Amino acid sequence: MADYRVGLDLGSTAIKAVITEGEAILWTGAVPTVPDQEALAFELVEKGRVELGLPDSWSFRVASTGYGKSLCRKADLRLDELSANARGLFRLSGGEARSAVNIGGQDLKTIRLSERGEVTDFRMNDKCAAGTGRFFELAARLLNVPLARFAELSRMPCEEVELNSTCVVFAESEIVSLLARGVSPQSIVRALHASVARRAAGLLGRMEDADAVWLDGGPAQNRGLVEAVEDELLTQVKVTEIPQYTVAYGAAMSLAPRPC
Ligand code: ADP
What we know:
The protein is α/β, with parallel strands linked by helices. The chain has helices spanning 37-52, 81-92, 133-143, 150-154, 168-180, 185-204, 223-233, 246-252; strands at 4-10, 14-21, 24-32, 60-65, 77-78, 99-103, 108-113, 119-125, 213-216, 237-238. Helix 3 runs parallel beside helix 5 and helix 6 packs across helix 7.
């Protein structure tokens, strides 16, 4: 019988699902987080099943993680986000990742991993939305520019400005006044990337080695941010092919392989 596994990451901003057969990723999908997360998560899995052309009698096991993991009563396994993140990233990086920064919708985390992929240290900032995906969403609304265009904008020649506010509420009024002064959206986007990169670097602390840093979470899809973190840390920043799904994949990989 095929070893189908489903990893569900019930995040603060998005619900992510990964369907695997053993370790191989077959499908990924995400929807915004709204109430009734369990029903939404299983609708997403059903969408994946249909797109994969699997029969509705398919047999699969589920592991849930993220803020809403306990809401997923049908899960065979529930695990904390940190373990899922470490497991997923370690596998997707081919065992290379030692230092990681995860930027989620409402928090910022750093993780250090051992040579065997165990978590040796972690830090988290979930007290403030500055430096998180929410901050990007707010800026996208104020600038009237979709997030998917932020990388392109940050590479355009522009005047240099800084965002100095350490609180998202003040940063909002700072962005509004920069716009009123006629500062271009590209300057503001670049300043925003630099400000999030400073926060990530601050939380990561001193780097003890020259290893690359791995960035994951939804905002890691933004190459402009990746480059800003590289400029801030003066080290290579790597991203897996599915940065928003690392945690969901790690959850799926936490299920024991099905015996043949
Ligand atoms: P959580 O697990 O906390 O729900 P995610 O890791 O799913 O958070 O990240 C959600 C954030 O990802 C959103 O707040 C948004 O800022 C960012 N994001 C989502 N899609 C993109 C994209 N295509 N480009 C850049 N950022 C994105």
